[in-house]
Amino acid sequence: MLLLKKQTEDISTIYEIREKLGSGAFSEVVLAQERGSAHLVALKCIPKKVLRGKEALVENEIAVLRRVSHPNIVALEDVHESPSHLYLAMELVTGGELFDRIMERGSYTEKDASHLVGQVLGAVSYLHSLGIVHRDLKPENLLYATPFEDSKIMVSDFGLSKIQAGNMLGTACGTPGYVAPELLEQKPYGKAVDVWALGVISYILLCGYPPFYDESDPELFSQILRASYEFDSPFWDDISESAKDFIRHLLERDPQKRFTCQQALQHLWISGDVALDKDILGSVSEQIQRNFARTHWKRAFNATSFLRHIRKLGQSPDGEETPRQGRCQGQVD
């Protein structure tokens, strides 16, 4: 279905604005109810004045979302434009962020992690089949559809997605800690960067801390470039060999040898019955609290360091030879 921008003088004639849900780099998201119905949406409100120079990013996000229809991907329902704003009416998801939900659980097992990763893999595999690379997969972009225990997980935030017209992309964007080695090296890259990010997420889901981390960003980048990580004792002692094998195939240094989404979906840890049933909630939730409470304030600093690293290679984040302010910086949060 083609979603044309619907013109309006005042968005409040279409939606009743209820409350603010959050804000991003250059937009605010509010809970809105469609007038004349009980239908609720998450309305992304983008002031046109902050769009100057970023129009391509937003047009790209709309172009991506228009093509997407999948049960595990947050849908774009409508697009409105007023003299001052652009409004994206997004499917409302109410279940909260991935880590928050894990912390609230009564129990949590490797099998639960396998089920979560399988859902995200299915969604990303679908995107890849359309030639779309998400480019910013991270736990904060994985949301639960509802607050109920059996809720599905949803992939959100396509602010950095690119439709892969040719075989490779050349714009370095993403969140440090989840970026693939080829991205840091400013090499042409493709769908394999999403698989790497899913490897990082899978690792965290099983132990509660990231595979690559250092207070020093140059050292963090060095770890990623070497694909240098461990399955540390005691945190990995009760995790199956199958889970570790799965992660090794996703955190493969060479993108040519790295699993595709389809290969990952066929791995026994996802498709079989080998993921363990042992409760690992205590250890994982303790590590999540310890390692991710700080990430919100560190993220802006990391974004700056990431761009500095890219510029040391003599290129801007958009793959151009001249160093100038990268347009990805505001998108890393």
TrEMBL record:
Subcellular location: Cytoplasm; Nucleus
Region (Disordered): 313-333
Cellular compartments per GO CC: cytoplasm; nucleus
Catalytic reaction annotation: L-threonyl-[protein] + ATP = O-phospho-L-threonyl-[protein] + ADP + H(+); L-seryl-[protein] + ATP = O-phospho-L-seryl-[protein] + ADP + H(+)
CDD domains: STKc_CaMKI_beta
UniProt-annotated binding residues for ATP: 49
Residues covered by the Protein kinase domain: 15-270
GO MF annotation, one: calmodulin binding
Gene3D superfamilies given in the database record: Phosphorylase Kinase, domain 1, Transferase(Phosphotransferase) domain 1
Enzyme class: transferase
Keyword tRNA processing assigned: no
Enzyme Commission identifier(s): 2.7.11.17
Keyword entries, A-Z: ATP-binding, Calcium, Calmodulin-binding, Cytoplasm, Kinase, Nucleotide-binding, Nucleus, Phosphoprotein, Serine/threonine-protein kinase, Transferase
InterPro entries per the UniProt record, alphabetical: CaMKI_beta_STKc, Kinase-like_dom_sf, Prot_kinase_dom, Protein_kinase_ATP_BS, Ser/Thr_kinase_AS
Record-stated family: Belongs to the protein kinase superfamily. CAMK Ser/Thr protein kinase family. CaMK subfamily.
Annotated protein name in UniProt: Calcium/calmodulin-dependent protein kinase type 1B
Record organism: Octodon degus
Source organism phylogeny: Eukaryota, Metazoa, Chordata, Craniata, Vertebrata
